[in-house]
Amino acid sequence: MGPQLDVVGIGNAIVDAVAQADDALLADEDLSKGSMTLIDAARAEALRPRMGHAVEVCGGSAANTMVGVARLGGVAGYVGKVRDDEVGAVFRRDIQDAGVDFSTPAAADGAATARCLVFVTPDAQRTMTTYLGACVELGPADIDPDFIARARLLYMEGYLWDPPAAKEAFRKALGIAHAAGGRVCLSLSDPFCVDRHRAELRDLVANHVDVLFANEDEAMSLYEVADFDTALAAARADCAIAALTRSAKGSVVAGDGGVHAIEAAPVAQVVDTTGAGDLYAAGFLLGLARGFTLDRCGRLAALTAGEIVGHYGARPEADIAPFVEASRHPL
């Protein structure tokens, strides 16, 4: 068995292309502002030139989170499926250069590597069009038992609950993680994803998940309630730890018999919300892997999320490693 990992994430391996856009472009392309729309390969090829200059990096929710863990000084691994094409090579090179252990074999045939085209308008809203491509082919055969067993924490994005094979891959992985003494963490990812799979996700959260990440809308959707406090109470009953984000209101972390209200980190200007939830999870997971108290985990998460919203893209621009020490103190 190899060295221990703080966190292993499993997710949709996607190359993100992020560019500034205006409302006129969204209207011209019939894109619903602030939404995530699934598209096919032809639509992706047609939209990409409309973006002009774009920053291209490895992406997908769990990949963003694992890069954040590594940038904080943690030891992170990743499981995701790419094709042996040019875009797949971009993903592999970028995530490995970021310090994340990624060795899932590339597919030799089938759909191309997934990509997400992110249009960011001046009001900091992100409009995403996603071609899932090869990542939906992730399956149980891609789960290396030794790799999963080496992690203190296993982290999954809720989007994996769409492809049936990926769902089975995660079921296999969570069994391995629990058998090895690790904790299983789930991000609900998107309220529409919750709507599609509510019954299964409710069962997963109640019976297999140790740490739940969700924003306010996702939590209320999961439990079909109209207010945050009721959703929080339900999450507390289901999971050992729940970390629920509330945008500018900060977050609420429940666990170990207590509830902690965490303020949002001060931000001079919100430029782009892309990746805020992913980097919140990165900070929280790193803290949890290192044995921090839950309120300190929440403060570290708030600091990492705050850095992301101050610029375009889902990759930290500043050195975020000092946030680990800064999280000892109130925000």
Over all CA atoms, what is the radius of gyration? 18 Å
Shape descriptor: globular
Pairing-aware structural class of the strands and helices? alpha/beta
How many separate helices? 13
Find the CATH topology of the domain at 5-11 and 60-89 and 134-326.
UDP-N-acetylmuramoyl-L-alanine:D-glutamate ligase
Query: CATH superfamily assignment of the domain at 5-11 and 60-89 and 134-326?
Result: Ribokinase
Q: Would you list the SSEs in sequence order as H and E?
A: EEHEHEHEHEEEHEHEHHEHHEEEHHH
- CATH architecture heading of the domain at 5-11 and 60-89 and 134-326: 3-Layer(aba) Sandwich
Number of strands: 14
Roughly what is the average pLDDT, rounded to an integer? 93
Features of this protein?
single chain; 331 residues; alpha/beta; 13 helices; 38% helix; 22% strand
Walk me through this protein's architecture:
The structure is a single chain. The protein is of the alpha/beta class and 331 residues long. It has a domain at 5-11 and 60-89 and 134-326: Ribokinase (UDP-N-acetylmuramoyl-L-alanine:D-glutamate ligase). Helices cover 38% and strands 22% of the residues. The protein is built from 13 helices and 14 strands. The protein has helices spanning 23-28, 41-47, 61-71, 86-97, 145-149, 164-179, 191-196, 198-207, 216-223, 228-238, 276-289, 294-309, 323-326, and strands spanning 5-10, 14-20, 36-38, 55-59, 76-79, 101-102, 114-120, 126-131, 151-157, 183-187, 211-215, 241-245, 251-255, 258-262. The chain has a nine-stranded mixed beta sheet with strand order 6-5-1-9-10-11-12-13-14, sandwiched between helices. Strands 3-8-7-2-4 form a five-stranded mixed beta sheet. A hairpin with a 2-residue loop joins strand 13 and strand 14. The model has no long low-confidence stretch (mean pLDDT 93).
